[in-house]
Amino acid sequence: MTHATNGPATGSSITRIEELPVPKYGDPKKAIEEIVKQLGDDKVSFVKSDLDNHSDAYFSSDHASEEQRPKAVFYPETTEEVSFILKTTHKYRVPVVPVTGRTSLEGNFIPTRQGICVDIARMNKILAVHEKDLDVTVEAGVGWQDLDKYLKDYNLLFGPDPGPGARIGGMVATSCSGPSAARWGTMKENVIGLTVVLADGTIIKTKKRPRKSSAGYNLNGLFIGSEGTLAVVTEATLRLNVRPKVTNVALVSFPKVSDAGKAVAGFVQEGLQLDAMELLDDTMMHYVNVSGKTSLKYEELPTLMLKFGGPSKEIIDYQVKAAQKICQTNNSQKYLFARSEKEEQEIWGARKVALLATIDYGRKNIDKDIQVWATDVAVPISHLYQSLQETKEELQKLGIAGSIVGHVGDGNYHAMILFKKEERAKVAVVVEHMMERALAADGTVTGEHGVGWGKKHYLQEEVSEETLALMRRIKIALDPYNLLNPDKVFDMDPALFEN
Amino acid sequence: MTHATNGPATGSSITRIEELPVPKYGDPKKAIEEIVKQLGDDKVSFVKSDLDNHSDAYFSSDHASEEQRPKAVFYPETTEEVSFILKTTHKYRVPVVPVTGRTSLEGNFIPTRQGICVDIARMNKILAVHEKDLDVTVEAGVGWQDLDKYLKDYNLLFGPDPGPGARIGGMVATSCSGPSAARWGTMKENVIGLTVVLADGTIIKTKKRPRKSSAGYNLNGLFIGSEGTLAVVTEATLRLNVRPKVTNVALVSFPKVSDAGKAVAGFVQEGLQLDAMELLDDTMMHYVNVSGKTSLKYEELPTLMLKFGGPSKEIIDYQVKAAQKICQTNNSQKYLFARSEKEEQEIWGARKVALLATIDYGRKNIDKDIQVWATDVAVPISHLYQSLQETKEELQKLGIAGSIVGHVGDGNYHAMILFKKEERAKVAVVVEHMMERALAADGTVTGEHGVGWGKKHYLQEEVSEETLALMRRIKIALDPYNLLNPDKVFDMDPALFEN
User: Fold this and answer.
1) Pairwise CB contact (< 8 Å): B242 & A217
2) Based on the structure, what is the number of domains in chain A?
3) Cβ-based neighbours of B442, under 8 Å, separated by 6 or more
4) For position B204, which CATH number holds?
């Protein structure tokens, strides 16, 4: 028996940033050579456009500098290959940024330390659907939209529905959700088990396939939302639901955001269970109309989009009518509900194109080089409407264009702010106020995007120094050399840290 | 800047048991003196009955030996007092077992290392209900039944409904659930934020009050299910739901367990959303009848108990009828539904008395010193009926009495086995087979009781050596001296460990 190697001398339970050394990294060259030798030439890229695309995205709130590029992008095809890569980067102390869909918005995959990028996108097989158990096992590169299409044939659905292009690995990383979260839960509620690779290359399977479990530490809970800083996700077993037999969609416009809020509170009090409730502000509806991406023209007013699902037409009709009645007592202007599946898709379509329509509007009507800052917060439900109204008014006062969309079932809203390059500092202040407003309302600086690179400072304001020091303790326990997605979520480098 | 104190020399991501030293503990005497001096005489007990009650329970599957008693039981009344206790036990390296309701079943609070017990039961205040936000903040000593009563006035409900007597702290610790979990989720899905005290006395607040969050590591997810080995829970903010306006309860008997299973699959496929679905086997129904604890007499057949809840009588009536139709096509014998709230309570009553009725039956009809072994597993839903039927048949073959209850919505079932002291070894084999059966079906050795002392060996079979080594890494990172609830969930002492 040897002595414990990782009990700190002090025996404390947390690690403060002052206790950490400045991380030292090795030269990636040898690691890259060894990995290429093992995996072959067809699983690596050194092409500039690939390196660029694996560092940044147009729609990200924060951007990589020109030096912030990985030295290579690897495309492993099995968990064992990922393990080989991580064993090698561990040996040579090379930083690794894991990605899948690269749709995250807060600079979550900027290669701040260069190193290498591991893109899991080729691991895109659906491995097993267990219809009767209501679960599916997939590789982490599977996109949620592909999964959704695939599951239609089984009459099943997977709850989380984030932005287009997102894939399971990244969805686990950011603990994402989407419009359906209030009904079906976020990633936290929809993962049964994970296969992940740790910083030293160890492969971990967190769970077997029971729908619930109290057996041992909840490692799913730890990895979900850790943004690639604790492990690289390679497979996931996901909870499924039976697809509602009958559905409908309604669209309701209100004179004021607060009226829409009162209607939502009314649905909840009444016990109506909707499959989604989305709020789009008047500006968002204007952008949708201008975009030409939908065939219907909408009222340019605060608008609720409601999705209903259930076992029978009687039950859906009851709910559609009950919701209408509640809307009417809260000054609704128009209550449009679909009379066919095509109409359902058409109405819901306005929600789906929100970010694209916003960007499109900006390019065509403001500046062809328009920038976008898309960010989210979540607050206790009763604070939602005032919080988003204040953000909206601040934008208007400054003459900055931007749309707002809210997942009103769980108090989460998104601001999609359009600006010219030179206006960035002004927008940063609006975002800062949006965060402060959320924190003052006992909320969080991110409901579903994650902290990434851009919100570290706000996370410091959200949780106590000790809570951050506990997160640091966990990070250093699992990744002592600070190799996995460095500089995200919170700082581990005292040289970088500003209080 | 100092050097990192807790990065292991090897830089690995896991800790195997061979790497750990045999833990060394200090004499509790000085720690107890200091704590008594700080907290006062009225917050400590040395009375034998208190020490006994804080070591074991009649209904536990595993029992404490006579030496396994804490040296003192403390009853702190604030988080700061808990922090003072833990700072002191940390200073003197004294083991601490935290408890609240002491209703756990797998030896989860046996004081294997003596030390002290911290009973959070006096921290039983409901601190704030936020009606519009659908959340409540409570101290960890609040019982779920008291909370349920309290929330009725607000027309709200908290989902998890484990055994009578359970309190929030222990419910967090075991990631418990209950009959309503398939509808409202387990503890994992119902905790918004926690206040906990770490092994060194550090107070951590995990989150503010947003209903969802992607901000930083999901510490809720880590602490829930960690069975007091990572932290002592002192406060929790919990998700609430609006209580259904209209409810009903039905009771259906079937000739065979498999028929009941087919009916449940039918409900799921139809998209009926029930508030609870419970299976009671024929033996359980016999014990309920004999117990005299309910006024109705039931068919002594496999029985489903169904709870319905929704916004209107029309919707509930529709669901009750739709469920009846599905039951009929699956050979149901009798379909009884309540016509009043009194009848609802009466019918559901048979479920509520399950464990007590079983013990009562054993005492009156088998042996006045009857023992009970109440344990649970969870399997993918489609494996549930065969799995529990095989356990049932094994009991019958050995002539051992026992009832079975299943939370059929999520593949979780409980066996409550009655035996005379001298039959313990025989029962242990039945339990072992029940575990093996669950694992062979890709399930878990505990769906909601936790691993405690009694199921460590089975957890070793459920997860890989590396997965256990990752749990050990986390444990030693947060509790380097192995003070919090030692010897539970998995072994940290290489001297104790048997492979």
Assistant:
1) no
2) 2
3) A208, A209, A210, B379, B380, B383
4) 3.30.465.10
> Tens digit of pLDDT for each residue in A5-21?
344 446 999 999 999 99
For residues A443 and A459, membership in a common domain is answered with: no
pLDDT for position B80? 98
Tell me the chain A residues in contact with residue B230 when contact means C-beta distances shorter than 8 Å: 217
Q: Each residue of A409-451: pLDDT tens digit?
A: 999 999 999 999 999 999 999 999 999 999 999 999 999 999 9
Q: Measure the CA–CA gap between B426 and A204, rounded to whole angstroms.
A: 35
Taking the CA of residue B156 and the nearest CA in chain A, the distance in Å comes to 10
The confidence score (pLDDT) of residue B499 equals 55
Tell me the C-alpha distance between B432 and B193, whole Å: 36
Taking an 8 Å cut-off on Cβ atoms, the answer to whether B314 and A314 are in contact is yes
ipTM over 0.90: yes
B320 and B337 in a single domain? The answer is: yes
Give the side-chain half-sphere CA count within 13 A for A39.
27
- Domain containing residue B406: 366-461
- Chain B partners of A6 at a C-beta cutoff of 8 Å? 6-8, 15, 19, 473, 476-477
- Whether residue A156 is found in the same domain as residue A111: yes
Say yes or no: B255 and B272 in one domain: yes
H-helix or E-strand containing B174? helix B168-174
Domain shared by B187 and B215, yes or no: yes
* B281 and B373 co-located in one domain: no
Question: Chain-wide mean pLDDT for chain A?
Answer: 94
Tell how far CA B424 is from the center of its chain: 23
Is A497 part of any domain?
no
Same domain (yes/no): B228, B280:
no
Q: Are residues A256 and A211 in the same domain?
A: no
C-beta atoms of A134 and B217 within 8 A: no
Check CB contact under 8 Å for A473 and B382: no
Chain A residues lying within 8 Å of B493, measured CB to CB: none
